[in-house]
């Protein structure tokens, strides 16, 4: 989760988020290099006293400053397109979870099992126990097995919502009358926090998401209790 005065992205806890962070750093390096080069040229231009009365064109330099930006754009576009395809790929999911957004709470349904569903509400500030996070903790966390591919089916029951967990690299709109699909794979056991990322009314700030990644044996024990 985010920390005070944090400037960078949250630590990636899924393969997809790690790839997104790598691409972010790659694109940011290109931006810094371009900004530095253009800044150097501007400084040189303002401090340069040399003139050339008969310089009308320079085909060589014009070719260079046309070709180099094109190469840079390709170097950014290729990994970006690869990531877009990776986001949509879901390989043999071990589990399917349906997420439904409401005003203002989430409902979860494990579609592979009969009658395994529950609602998840934010815990009010006056009911928080020691160690809980204000506006982030919920009464029912979403248990998932780690190192397992999971298919998330996301929709809404009323208005637009957005189911987002930054450290897992997942953000999908919940649209009424439409079922959106996204993949989820958690690298390690732990608790991961997110929030609704679409302004959905007066309770928008009170729709947290808490995912608890468990080992397979612990997840099966929890599942047995639900069934």
UniProtKB/TrEMBL annotation:
Main localization of the protein described in the UniProt heading: mitochondrion
Cofactor binding mode and count: Binds a copper A center.
Residues of the Cytochrome oxidase subunit II copper A binding domain: 92-225
InterPro entries assigned to the protein according to its UniProt record, in alphabetical order: CcO_II (IPR045187), CcO_II-like_C (IPR002429), CcO_II_C (IPR034210), Copper_CuA (IPR001505), Cupredoxin (IPR008972), Cyt_c_oxidase_su2 (IPR014222), Cyt_c_oxidase_su2_TM_dom (IPR011759), Cyt_c_oxidase_su2_TM_sf (IPR036257)
Cofactor dependency: Cu cation
Transmembrane regions listed in the UniProt entry: 20-46, 67-87
Cellular component, GO annotation: mitochondrial inner membrane
Pfam assignment, any one: COX2_TM
Subunit details: Component of the cytochrome c oxidase (complex IV, CIV), a multisubunit enzyme composed of a catalytic core of 3 subunits and several supernumerary subunits. The complex exists as a monomer or a dimer and forms supercomplexes (SCs) in the inner mitochondrial membrane with ubiquinol-cytochrome c oxidoreductase (cytochrome b-c1 complex, complex III, CIII).
Protein name: Cytochrome c oxidase subunit 2
Species name: Artemia tibetiana
């Amino acid at each position: 989760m985010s920390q005070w005065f944090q400037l960078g992205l949250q630590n990636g806890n899924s393969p997809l988020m790690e790839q997104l962070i790598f691409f972010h750093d790659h694109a940011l390096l290109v931006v810094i290099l371009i900004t530095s080069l253009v800044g150097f040229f501007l400084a040189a231009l303002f401090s340069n006293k040399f003139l050339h009365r008969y310089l009308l064109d320079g085909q060589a330099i014009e070719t260079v400053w046309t070709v180099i930006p094109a190469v840079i754009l390709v170097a950014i576009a290729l990994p970006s397109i690869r990531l877009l395809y990776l986001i949509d790929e879901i390989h043999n999911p071990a589990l399917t979870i349906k997420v439904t957004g409401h005003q203002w709470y989430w409902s979860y349904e494990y579609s592979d099992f009969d009658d395994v569903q529950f609602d998840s509400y934010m815990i009010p500030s006056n009911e928080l126990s020691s160690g809980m996070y204000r506006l982030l903790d919920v009464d029912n966390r979403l248990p998932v097995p780690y190192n397992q591919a999971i298919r998330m089916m996301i929709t809404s029951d009323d208005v637009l919502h957005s189911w987002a967990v930054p450290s897992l690299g997942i953000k999908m709109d919940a649209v009424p009358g439409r079922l959106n699909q996204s993949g989820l794979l958690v690298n390690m056991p732990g608790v991961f926090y997110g929030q609704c990322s679409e302004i959905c009314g007066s309770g928008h700030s009170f729709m947290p998401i808490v995912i608890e990644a468990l080992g397979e044996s612990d997840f099966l024990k929890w599942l047995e209790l639900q069934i």
